[in-house]
Design brief:
The structure is a homodimer. Chain A contains two helices and eight strands; from the N terminus they run ββαββββββα. By secondary structure, the first copy, chain A, is mainly beta. Chain A has a single domain, classed as Roll (Ubiquitin-like (UB roll)), CATH 3.10.20. Strand 7 of chain A pairs antiparallel with strand 5 of chain B.
Chain lengths: 125, 125
């Protein structure tokens, strides 16, 4: 029986998504208990959107789903790590492979790679 | 100039720590603005402990510091990814290399590896 601590952050806990093969960290989202159970049940990563305040099946708009390969939880049962197959090769709404594509270097930001897709074509904005 | 969004979670944001060489995700902690600036300034990972409500220089008790090699921030500037050299070979207070050492498998938990150190010897409890 897997029991997570959703109480430390008002019903949410952070979920880190990592590419199953390359081990690249793709993004971080938040899950409520329903999102967690849906992720387990469907095998596709589901978050709870803090801005929209609703369940967010990753990839439902872009087609870039995240297929769960392994699930790990941390020592305190208050964070989740999901190893996934990233459909379409990119997790970020900017078109970049990873949401963590901005490197802090000598006090400023440099962008690490080029977008894999054009957000305007995918999201229409 | 690097500006992060600390306002979405009452002054805190999640920070994922990943091993610089193996790309293993070691842990997830939270930073307030002071912890973030100290991490940048000292090159050692510093969190804000939600339970103790104080700055937490990772490794100050155990000697297992995390030396920052690369810093990345995400598309929304509300999450941080730190690639580190993990001093002493383990990040978790249980003695395991990673805090994410519990795998969810067929609805139950299995422990992925053996502890690298004995917590009783390090923390005296």
């Amino acid at each position: 029986m897997v029991k997570l601590s959703f109480d430390k952050m008002g019903g949410l806990l952070p979920a880190v998504v990592q590419d199953y093969e390359t081990r690249e960290v793709l993004m971080l989202g938040f899950m409520n208990e329903q999102a967690w159970h849906l992720t387990l049940k469907t095998g596709r990563v589901t978050f709870f959107s803090r801005s929209r305040k609703e369940l967010w099946i990753k990839g439902n708009t872009s087609g870039r789903h995240q297929i769960v390969k392994e699930i790990r939880i941390d020592c305190d049962d208050d964070a989740v790590l999901l190893l996934v197959e990233q459909v379409g090769g990119a997790a970020c709404h900017t078109g970049h492979r990873s949401c963590f594509h901005k490197e802090v270097h000598n006090g400023s930001i440099r962008i690490l790679d080029s977008p894999v897709f054009d957000p305007k074509e995918v999201y229409g904005k």
